[in-house]
């Protein structure tokens, strides 16, 4: 699913109008009616109480006016607040004239009328066309609304929030409990710094031009199951373990063998045909007991890895979970970067070693996959000013080092060497727990061992990892979720996205 810019979204509207030979007012009616259907399916007139609809002078205000009319027709008690303006859009004017006389209208020139806590307010002041922070009366009204502690639902986007860029820290932005947008997600919805404004966001289809969306180049994508169709084919009857590659994991150190176990189990549950795990001597018994399906190679050292094994047998190599940062271990990483012919997946302490020795980044083999969390990423690059700047750093880093970088978090973002960003749609807050990243390393290593491209392995791996977490949370709840629970549900997660042979 593509993530379009605000300008591209406007172009999609215009393309739809041309193709269907309709007016912009008809498209507005379609969008606002879809919103009304969404709201009335969730709130009865009695539950909603009196609904205040705040409308600005542009097309977002027009959406609000249509929603107010539709709600009134369905028996809801509605009142409208109009932001004073010297100029209104044509579609706003049309729908202002259509608003039934029975719907009370308040001029907001004197500010926001008294709103009871927990009252339902629809925010239709400003939409994606906004290009600068709010000021004057509009900013004052937003500040009053936020102070009222109402149940706010934003139509399309919270007023004051820019769709594609950050706003100054002191900007007035509506804090919505829910944001209901149309057709495609907006970048602003996916970034942590905007969570307090967006709340829970929802997408409603309104029939925007499929042809325009498919033909438009997008620098960002939102990954869902539809996008992954065909990436993981059904296994043929006469496949054997050699068909699905031989993975190598370099992991573990004294006190951190658990990380190696989690990565190992995840790799096994993600379809690798064979798996060898290189651990320090202290990890041998643990690995043999906890994961008998894997082969275990022990390092001559007891507590950390000091030597690199022969790399010829392996079709993908993962390094980092629980690895530690001993000098001998760093030397192993240096040698791996220099000698590896198989694709690499680099995580955890291996990333920290790279961050402490940035000259090694120049030795990264092309198409390596790195899996940092934000702090690890900063060690590889620099502190980010905000979430938008972090995405710029991600693009630059991936282009400079010809690598794929999985920036972990809510809506985990994969950066690709050509500058494209892929935001993940699966996962939950219960996955913010120790070992979850080790599981992801095992998943992606297994997919690379099966000869998936770096893009497909990273995107599919992140999606399946998050989906397994979602399935696990249904059983355990988010607070009770452990990294091992994610491993247990990897099989069902992959089953959901496996392409089956049809008649």
From TrEMBL:
Entry's EC annotation: 4.2.1.136, 5.1.99.6
Residues binding K(+), per UniProt: 60, 123, 159
The family this protein is said to belong to: In the C-terminal section; belongs to the NnrD/CARKD family. Belongs to the NnrE/AIBP family.
Domain spans labelled YjeF N-terminal: 9-214
Top-level division of the source organism's lineage: Bacteria
Record HAMAP family: NADHX_dehydratase, NADHX_epimerase
SUPFAM superfamilies with a match to the protein in the record: Ribokinase-like (SSF53613), YjeF N-terminal domain-like (SSF64153)
Catalytic activity line of the entry: (6S)-NADPHX + ADP = AMP + phosphate + NADPH + H(+); (6S)-NADHX + ADP = AMP + phosphate + NADH + H(+); (6R)-NADHX = (6S)-NADHX; (6R)-NADPHX = (6S)-NADPHX
Protein name from the UniProt record: Bifunctional NAD(P)H-hydrate repair enzyme
GO MF annotations, alphabetized: ADP-dependent NAD(P)H-hydrate dehydratase activity; ATP binding; metal ion binding; NAD(P)HX epimerase activity
Keyword Zinc-finger: no
Listed cofactors: K(+); Mg(2+)
